């Protein structure tokens, strides 16, 4: 009579240990591959946004969209304006590395406070912006006013607040102050890199040393980096 052989407890433990070791060895490589895919998608999103800005400029006498205003008492942002005037879809405003809900897909107005991408609202999407207000109160830039398009930031990765790194924002606050908890850059999403769409349409990643003080790396406020040479 043949006897059925079974694994002993020790053998099972050895197999489990081997699987655990292999998983631990593979996990960093898998995470790195995932992060590279996230960054690639993010860069592609920004390129699409750059194209949408060009289409918008062509239809509005070269004026950039206002960063935000009230329409029928509803908050509307630059994201909504690009979507309304181009073929951009909500998915192009969602950074796949942004884990905190809600995302623009879940928000009836593209998540103006929760987009993964922040607009340069002070110098391009407004004139020293003072908040979500009527269109006429904040004047956006005209393309001809921006004399350094290759150096000026247009859109980049952003977060809602310093304490909520997984929740995106629709604007970037480039220096700390009374509202420094809003819109600072999340340098964690792409392995310490911030993906940036420049005024001239090119996209690049920049290394940020301190996510709480990103302007130290990206240029202090009201410099060419931020105002793009706005006259």
Based on helices, strands and strand pairing, what is the structural class? alpha+beta
Q: Give the strand line-up of the largest sheet.
A: 3-4-5-6
Give the low-pLDDT segments. Answer: 101-111, 128-135
**What is the count of distinct domains?**
1
Strand content: 5-15%
Counted by DSSP, the helix tally is 4
Q: Could you give the order of the helices and strands? A: HEEHEEEEHH
Shape: elongated
Task: Walk me through the structure.
The chain has 231 residues and is of the alpha+beta class. It has one domain (9-227). The protein is built from 4 helices and 6 strands; from the N terminus they run H-E-E-H-E-E-E-E-H-H. It has helices spanning 9-59, 78-85, 215-218, 224-227; strands at residues 68-71, 74-77, 117-119, 153-157, 193-198, 203-207. Helix 1 (9-59) packs across helix 2. The longest helix has 51 residues, at 9-59. It is elongated, with a radius of gyration of 22 Å. The model is unreliable at 101-111 and 128-135 (pLDDT under 50).
Short description:
The chain is α+β, with helices and mostly antiparallel strands and 231 residues long.
Descriptive labels:
231 residues; alpha+beta; two-stranded antiparallel sheet; elongated; four-stranded antiparallel beta sheet; 29% helix
């Amino acid at each position: 009579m043949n006897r059925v052989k079974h694994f002993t407890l020790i053998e099972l433990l050895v197999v489990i240990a081997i699987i655990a070791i292999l998983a631990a060895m593979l996990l960093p490589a898998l995470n790195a591959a995932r992060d590279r895919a996230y960054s690639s998608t993010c860069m592609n999103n920004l390129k699409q946004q750059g194209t949408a800005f060009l289409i918008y400029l062509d239809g509005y006498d070269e004026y950039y969209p206002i960063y935000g205003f009230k329409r029928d008492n509803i908050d509307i942002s630059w994201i909504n304006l690009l979507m309304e005037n181009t073929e951009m879809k909500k998915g192009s405003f969602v950074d796949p590395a942004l884990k905190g809900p809600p995302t623009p897909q879940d928000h009836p107005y593209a998540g103006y406070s929760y987009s993964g991408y922040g607009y340069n609202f002070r110098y391009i999407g407004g004139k020293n912006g003072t908040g979500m207000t009527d269109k006429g109160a904040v004047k956006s830039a005209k393309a001809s006013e921006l004399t350094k398009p290759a150096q000026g930031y247009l859109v980049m990765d952003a977060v809602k607040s310093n304490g909520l790194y997984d929740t995106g924002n629709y604007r970037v606050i480039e220096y700390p102050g009374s509202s420094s908890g809003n819109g600072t850059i999340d340098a964690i999403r792409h392995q310490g890199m911030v993906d940036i769409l420049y005024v001239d349409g090119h996209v690049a990643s920049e290394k940020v040393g301190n996510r709480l003080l990103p302007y130290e790396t990206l240029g202090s406020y009201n410099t060419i980096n931020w105002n793009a040479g706005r006259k």
